[in-house]
Write a structure and sequence with these properties.
Layout (H helix, E strand, L loop, with lengths): L2 H15 L4 E4 L1 H7 L8 E4 L3 H7 L2 E6 L4 E6 L2 E7 L1 E4 L9 E4 L3 H6 L8 E3 L5 E3 L3 H7 L1 E2 L5 H7 L2 H13 L2 E2 L1 H10 L8 H12 L4 H10 L13 H7 L9 H11 L5 H10 L4 H17 L6 H21 L6 H9 L13 H8 L5 H15 L7 H10 L4
Parallel strand pairs: 2-5, 10-11
Antiparallel strand pairs: 1-2, 1-8, 3-4, 4-5, 6-7, 8-9
Helix pairs in contact: 6-8, 7-9, 7-10, 12-14, 13-14, 14-15, 15-16, 18-19
The chain binds adenosine-5'-triphosphate (ATP) and magnesium ion.
């Protein structure tokens, strides 16, 4: 058993000592069996939330209505969730109500995929009721139970299926595949935020060709924001040389493959996907810089305006697209940049107003922009006197 599980052992043991069952469940067990690094372990138990709260000194109610209590122990936190079933899905997404149960099998039955539906006890023994271990060995993505029913209950599971295909390089089992074909349209009932999480994980997957093959062949893509006519674009998107490293790279590369050029159009697309404002800004900037780089080199202006980080990201995107790229140029430019922000300019509005004895106005903003540009282009040194002389000479002041 790896470190994360060992660390959580006291949590399991405390629950068991009180006469309840407790297991490691979910992604951590799957990843451990695959020999992958495990970050946070999830624990499932037959104890009800109130019972868990009585067993530990420090707990936080993070989702008590769903049966989840966070246990704080020796500087670590663990999510402990009561075995539950989910009943009467009426709108193809989250259940109307959850019912706590005492049976592990009942809990595992409501999980999405067989490879996510086994449990591990404190000795490392696996409880597997749905053939998850075998599917893991055979590299198969299979819904727990009847795929059609399961996707009807919660349509997001279809996105999760292709997402795991992309991360693990597994194949969609035939019934699961056809159930997605039949139910793909139900994705329209799912909150875009939830779809986005799975889409981005799929796009950053090591085996994204495989994941996107399922995503496209089942026509799931048609029910994602702005992708109705994106079949060709997605076919090109998966040709990246290596796994994509960040979410903003995902969006910039997707916008590029979609043939979108206008920044306004790009932003509208990203808004449909419900990205945060910051991520919209970063992704749209990265996309614009990427388009610019198809024709021009990086310069003081690009590195200054977009920051070194984003400029390097643009080079990474070019690399992923198998186009000429130059990260060293960005490093060199940044190292020699006369200023990195307006604040570093050896002049400001106050100084200019003092020197000219004029009140502020539109002219002042224009003067500052001109100064900034001239310094960046190294036409003049970043020096108050030199900047003032330049502004006078060019009739800005
Ligand atoms: P990751 O490593 O990306 O976190 P994960 O499998 O742990 O993958 P989570 O979203 O953290 O994914 O979910 C934890 C577990 O909860 C899953 O392994 C699965 O058993 C169950 N689960 C998550 N989402 C669903 C769903 N939509 N329907 C059914 N079970 C789900
Ligand atoms: Mg997880």
């Amino acid at each position: 058993m790896t470190g994360e599980f060992k660390k959580a052992l006291p949590v399991l043991e405390t629950i068991q000592a009180a006469g309840f069952e407790a297991y490691y469940v979910g992604g951590s067990v799957r990843d451990a069996l695959l020999g992958k690094a495990v970050n946070d372990v999830d624990i499932a138990t037959s104890a009800f939330p109130e019972e868990i709260k009585q067993l530990f000194k420090k707990t936080v109610d993070v989702g008590i209505e769903h049966g989840t209590v966070m246990v704080l122990l020796e500087g670590e936190s663990y999510e402990v969730t009561t075995f539950r079933t989910e009943s009467t899905y009426q709108d193809f997404r989250r259940p109307d109500s959850v019912t706590f149960v005492r049976s592990l099998k009942e809990d595992l039955k409501r999980r999405d995929l067989t490879i996510n539906a086994f449990a591990m006890d404190q000795t490392g023994e696996i409880q597997d009721f749905f053939g998850g271990e075998q599917d893991l060995d055979n590299q198969v993505i299979r819904a727990v139970g009847k795929a059609e029913e399961r996707f009807n209950e919660d349509a997001l599971r279809m996105m999760r299926a292709v997402r795991f295909a992309s991360q693990l390089g597994f194949n969609l089992e035939a019934d699961t595949f056809y159930a997605i074909v039949v139910n793909a349209h139900l994705l329209e009932n799912i909150a875009v935020e939830r779809i986005r999480v799975e889409f981005v994980k799929m796009a950053m997957g090591r085996y994204l060709r495989q994941g996107f093959a399922g995503f496209v062949e089942t026509r799931l893509y048609m029910y994602c924001p702005g992708l109705l006519h994106a079949k060709e674009a997605l076919r090109d998107f998966v040709k990246v040389k290596e796994p994509i490293q960040s979410e903003r790279q995902v969006w910039a590369l997707l916008l590029y493959q979609l043939g979108i050029q206008e920044e306004k159009e790009a932003r509208a697309f990203l808004k449909h996907w419900k990205l945060s404002n910051q991520l919209v800004n970063e992704s749209a900037d990265l996309h614009q810089l990427l388009l610019y780089r198809l024709h021009y080199s990086q310069s003081n202006e690009t590195v200054y305006r977009y920051t070194k980080e984003l400029a390097l990201d643009a080079e990474t995107c070019l690399y992923l697209l198998d186009l000429p790229y130059d990260k060293e140029a960005v490093e060199t430019i940044d190292a020699h940049l006369p200023i990195h922000s307006r604040k570093e300019l050896d002049i400001n509005g106050k100084i200019i107003m003092e020197k000219t004895s004029q009140r502020g106005g539109k002219w002042l903003g224009q003067a500052l922009i001109a100064a900034e540009r001239a310094v960046l282009k190294t036409e003049i040194p970043n020096d108050t006197e030199a900047i003032l002389a330049y502004l006078k000479q060019n009739d800005y002041i």
